[in-house]
Design brief:
The chain contains one helix and ten strands. The chain is mainly beta. Strands 1, 2, 3, 4, 5, 6, 7, 8, 9 and 10 form a ten-stranded antiparallel sheet that branches. The radius of gyration is 13 Å and the shape is globular.
Length: 124
C-alpha cells in the first residue's frame, strides 16, 4: 500500500507518495529522516540511514517529480528537471537508481533549494 510522506527542503514543502516496493518500504521504515541537501543540476540528493542494493527495477531515466534511492551513495534523490548527464529536458540519474515514488505536486518548486539546506522527510 502506498505511503504518504512530506518532503521539506529549505522553504519548500510538498507531499509525496512512496511506492509499495521493498526499497520504498525500507525508506519508510527509517522515517523521519533529516539531512542536508546536495544539488546536482535539477536534482537534490542526500545520504539517508538506509543501505540497499540496486534493485531489479533500477533505471537512470527518470521523470520530473520522481523519488529514487541511489545505492552507491546511500542517498535519496528528488528529480525536478535535467541533471548534468541529461540528454534533453528529462532528468537522468548518474547511474541506475531504485524508483521510490513521486512528488504529489509541482516538483519544480525544489529549484529554490540550495546546497546545504536542511531536508526532512516524514510520514504525512
Amino acid at each position: 500500500m502506498p505511503r504518504k510522506v512530506t518532503i521539506t527542503a529549505g522553504k519548500v514543502s510538498l507531499p509525496a507518495t512512496l511506492n509499495d516496493t521493498a526499497s520504498a518500504l525500507a525508506v519508510a521504515g527509517a522515517l523521519p529522516i533529516e539531512a542536508r541537501a546536495n544539488r546536482w543540476g535539477d536534482e537534490i540528493y542526500f545520504e539517508i540511514p538506509v543501505k540497499l542494493e540496486e534493485s531489479a527495477d533500477a533505471r537512470a531515466e527518470m521523470q520530473v517529480g520522481e523519488l529514487a534511492y541511489w545505492a552507491p551513495g546511500s542517498a535519496l534523490c528528488v528529480f525536478f528537471g535535467p541533471t548534468p548527464v541529461s540528454q534533453g529536458s528529462a532528468p537522468r540519474a548518474a547511474s541506475p537508481v531504485n524508483p521510490l515514488g513521486h512528488v504529489d505536486g509541482d516538483a519544480t518548486a525544489f529549484k529554490a533549494v540550495r546546497n546545504g539546506e536542511e531536508v526532512r522527510i516524514e510520514a504525512a
